[in-house]
TrEMBL record:
InterPro entries: Leu-rich_rpt, Leu-rich_rpt_typical-subtyp, LRR_dom_sf, LRR_LRWD1_dom, LRWD1, WD40/YVTN_repeat-like_dom_sf, WD40_repeat_CS, WD40_repeat_dom_sf. Belongs to the LRWD1 family. It is found in: Chromosome, Centromere, Kinetochore; Chromosome, Telomere; Cytoplasm, Cytoskeleton, Microtubule organizing center, Centrosome; Nucleus. Keywords: Centromere, Chromatin regulator, Chromosome, Cytoplasm, Cytoskeleton, DNA replication, Kinetochore, Leucine-rich repeat, Nucleus, Repeat, Telomere, WD repeat. Residues 207-239 are annotated as: Disordered. WD repeats lie at residues 390-424. It holds the Pfam family WD_LRWD1. Residues 6-195 form the Leucine-rich repeat and WD repeat-containing protein 1 LRR domain. Residues 264-648 form the Leucine-rich repeat and WD repeat-containing protein 1 WD domain. It comes from the Eukaryota. SUPFAM superfamilies: Outer arm dynein light chain 1 (SSF52075), WD40 repeat-like (SSF50978). This is Leucine-rich repeat and WD repeat-containing protein 1. SMART domains: LRR_TYP, WD40.
Amino acid sequence: MGPLNPQLLMERGQPKSRRLGRIRSLDLSGLELHSEHLDPKLLSRLKQLQELDLSNNQLEVLPDNLGLSHLRVLHCCNNQLGDVTALCQFPKLEELSLEGNPFLTVNDNLKVSFLLPKLRKVNGKDASSTSSQVENLNRELTIRVTAHWEKFMASLSPEEEAEKARADFVRSAVRDVHYGPESLSEFTRWRVRMISEELVASGGTQVRGANIPEKSPKATAVQEPRARPGACKRPGDAPLNFSPYKRVCTSPSAQVEGRPTGSDGSQPALKLEPLHFLQCHSKNNSPQDLKTQLWACAFEPACEEGHTGSTSQSVATCGGEAVCVIDCQTGIVLHKYKAPGEEFFSVAWTALTVVTQAGHKKRWNVLAAAGLRGQVRLLHVRAGFCCGVIRAHKKAIATLCFSPTHETHLFTASYDKRIILWDIGVPNEDYTFQASQLLTLDSTSTPLRLCPVASCPDAYLLAGCEGGCCCWDVRLDQPQKRRVCEVEFIFSEGSQASGQRVDGLAFVNEDVVASKGNGGLGTICLWSWSQTWVSRGSQSTVAVVVLARLQWSPTEVAYFSLSTCPDKGIVLCGDEEGSVWIYDVRHLLMQQPPLPAAPQAPTQILKWPQPRALGQTVTRTMVNTVAANPTFTYLTALTDSNIVAIWERS
């Protein structure tokens, strides 16, 4: 399609007229228009235009000066838009459609709400909730930037040049003023810059949009769920109704045996404060739903464009029919994906580099979710849609994980006793995935946990299975595309017996593995991958080289998943009493042999808050899985009774 012309506009405009100035509605959808085809001189002649449809084109930006000041309805679905700030030229806009623009995120939704105060509907939905969120964010950011201004101006010496100082203020505000979820940081930085510039221009006297009337807070409800093969559920739970407010309680701690202590012989506990208790997987948003079991959580990668080294505070959780992405700081459910009839058991993140049709590179965080149906759903959560479905197995998928070195390589483990390595590829021009199968790994029992070997993830994969801990060769330069277990590891000293379930498995660092199962009730085992592998020889069954054992619950209940924070030397595991066991094992990793024979006590046992602390009647609940972000700032625990608990380390 070439540039627009008056004849085309009159043909596709309503009402039919030989004068452009009389057209009120114009359909320019499906013409393969590019941004340069929108001629401002021509379009500005549409003085009475109120509705414009630009859907199903190739637009990457909207020109700034289209001159359509009376426009009330704009459809821009299924384009390549990457920025929404040009929409401010339509101050009377009431309805806007932006679905199918894969490079727009929740930050752009907030920008739209701020720029268009008369907007009533976005993508066919009421815009009032987003508007309320923008008002709250704007109010808090204005308070913080104003406080920063006062502090900044007070620090200036009389001889400093005012103009230079004020320019420095804008830079310092953008750098130092933070508020809200990390996933909204693009919007908050954008507003901080605007507020700062307005303060500088007015000499610190006023900010546009600062005097917004206070609105009463509303509790938000969330949704749905179901129950996993072989899972244990304790009866007798009573209903509870969590308030949306922050709750505080203290957690008891235990001193670690053999650990360096303070001058008084004591070991200070980690300070963890409960922030949020959410029921965001409830069936029909019911607060009475205490049956939906939550199975897995994973923190979002923090390597967004321009934010390398930042810490993620968004966590994905799964259970029942829903996958949620939650901001740990605020407790806001940022995104929710539902698949009716599904029950999700596992989630995993990867960060992909996607190239647009114009050759621009974009960074996508993609979430893989899988469960009962044996399908993997690939979710672009920021844009709010499913990019593809992999029909991976005929039976339920127990767990999945991405390769740490190949961003498109995904392992799926199923109740069909197979592990499959997929290459999901990158999205095509329609932003869908076309996955290909690379390897099939056969197991003698159901694989429960997957763990690429930290020191050689392209060569070997560990799996905790119903029948033990197994290892496969996953090198792609080998000819066999279907392989059996190469080595089985056993944990009982002096025993060649296998068949002991391993339902917890994670690397603590490049060499040390943490594992647990029914072969060592009441303990978590720390063992050396390198020392065990060297001692293997040609054997197919090898006893692990145990470095230490950690004291844990003596329960016989299975499927409590453990996790680690390798950068912090932290091991985490829930139990049947609703507690989270926390171990700081850095002293063990640095200690020379022989290590203590007795199981090491936890650094801390994080107890479920008491009813008085919560203001509710809370029954005992099992913590199925625990995860923390890499810096151990936030800790998330999922229960068998539909509760997501979030703690913050202070």
